[in-house]
Amino acid sequence: VQLQASGGGLVQPGGSLRLSCAASGRRFSGNPMGWYRQAPGQQREFVAGMVGGGYTTYAESVRGRFTMSRDIAKNTVYLQMNSLKPEDTAVYYCKASKGGVEYWGQGTLVTVSS
Q1: Residue 101 burial by CB count (10 A; 0-12/13-18/19+): exposed, middle or buried?
Q2: What is the pLDDT along the chain (114 residues), one digit of tens a residue?
Q3: Measuring CA to CA, which of 73, 103, 109, 113 is 20 to 30 A from 27?
Q4: Where does 25-113 show beta strands of DSSP type E?
Q5: Strand, coil or helix: what is 14?
Q6: 33-53: per-residue pLDDT in tens?
Q7: First to last CA, the chain
């Protein structure tokens, strides 16, 4: 099982990025998946999550700016990030849960700076 996160980069404050997390080896269409982030010197924190029915939850700090979605056919989830702020700078990770096992992607760096 492999989760491949991509889409990070350098963006100015107020800009947008879309992260992707493609899963291979197993299908996660009906399983919980989520996005987390870890800023330098900080603990990893929850950003957004989606359960099998498509219901999504968001951290208070990103609600209204970030949107998580999925493409079942591609076994891929996305994180659309708008109105980015410098405090959104972090390595973003995707996570999938299946059968009591957690799978993590390798992370993609998002830097919000002018």
Answers
A1: exposed
A2: 789 999 999 999 999 999 999 988 777 767 889 999 999 999 999 999 998 788 999 999 999 999 999 998 888 999 999 999 999 999 999 999 888 889 999 999 999 999
A3: 109
A4: 33-38, 45-50, 56-58, 66-71, 76-81, 90-98, 101-104, 108-112
A5: coil
A6: 999 999 999 999 999 999 878
A7: 37
Look at residue 91 and give its three-state secondary structure: strand
- 68-106-30 Cα angle (round to 5): 45
The torsion defined by the Cα of 70, 72, 76 and 78, in degrees rounded to 10, comes to -10
Q: Which residue has the tokens 């708008």?
A: 82
As a whole number of angstroms, the distance between CA 81 and CA 15 comes to 8
Q: Token pair for residue 73?
A: 């056919």
Distances (CA, A) of 82 to 72, 74, 77, 110: 23, 23, 16, 12
